[in-house]
């Protein structure tokens, strides 16, 4: 993978990526890397020393697929948003292919999907009409692509 590929996927400048990829001289210390830059490049969070929810951006493809999967199962965005601690509109934006999102949100979406996908929304207090409407909208979105 080239420096340009890494920069494009991480949303960083290619100059910064090239500087980080250079091996330091023998008596020179490696360059300091900001946590958000490291998270963007690696795609995984670095263990936090001070701040447990360190920001970092990642591709939203997996999160989008997981949210669409929950919609096909009948889970409306109005039920998912409070569980994720975000706005209902944000759920819709991520599901409909927002390009990037914060890493900790992507991890929360993955956890929520694992928790809810095997459950029937109507047995969890979601109104049957809301489930049907969500399933129909998910089917329409799937047919568009």
Fold and architecture overview:
The protein is elongated and about 65 Å long. 57% of the residues lie in helices and 4% in strands. It is mainly α and 145 residues long. The mean pLDDT is 83. Helix 1 packs across helix 3. It has 2 domains: 53 residues, no CATH class; 87 residues, no CATH class. The chain starts with a helix and ends with a helix. It has a two-stranded antiparallel sheet with strand order 1-2. The chain contains 8 helices and 2 strands, in the order αααβαααβαα.
Spatial strand arrangement across the major sheet: 1-2
Secondary-structure element series: HHHEHHHEHH
Global structural class = mainly alpha
Task: Please indicate the percent range of residues in DSSP E strands (runs of 2 or more).
Answer: under 5%
Count up the domains.
2
Largest sheet: 2 strands, antiparallel
Structure summary, number of beta strands = 2
User: How confident overall, as mean pLDDT?
Assistant: 83
Mass-distribution shape: elongated
Over all CA atoms, what is the radius of gyration? Answer: 19 Å
Helix run count: 8
Q: Quick summary of this structure?
A:
The chain has 145 residues and is mainly alpha-helical. It is built from eight helices and two strands; from the N terminus they run αααβαααβαα.
Helix/strand layout:
Layout: H1 3-10, H2 14-21, H3 35-42, E1 57-59, H4 61-72, H5 77-84, H6 88-95, E2 100-102, H7 103-116, H8 128-144
Antiparallel strand pairs: 1-2
Helix pairs in contact: 1-2, 1-3, 4-7, 4-8, 5-6
Features:
mainly alpha; two-stranded antiparallel sheet
């Amino acid at each position: 993978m080239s420096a340009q590929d890494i920069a494009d996927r991480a949303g960083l400048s290619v100059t910064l990526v090239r500087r980080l990829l250079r091996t330091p001289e023998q008596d020179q210390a490696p360059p300091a890397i900001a946590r958000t830059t490291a998270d963007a490049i690696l795609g995984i969070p670095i263990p936090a020393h001070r701040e447990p929810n360190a920001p970092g951006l990642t591709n939203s493809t997996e999160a989008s697929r997981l949210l669409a999967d929950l919609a096909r199962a009948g889970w409306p965005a109005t039920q998912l948003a409070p569980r994720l601690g975000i706005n209902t509109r944000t759920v819709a934006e991520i599901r409909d292919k927002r390009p990037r999102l914060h890493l900790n949100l992507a991890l929360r979406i993955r956890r929520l999907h694992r928790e809810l996908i095997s459950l029937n929304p109507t047995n969890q207090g979601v109104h049957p009409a809301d489930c049907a409407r969500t399933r129909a909208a998910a089917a329409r979105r799937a047919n568009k692509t």
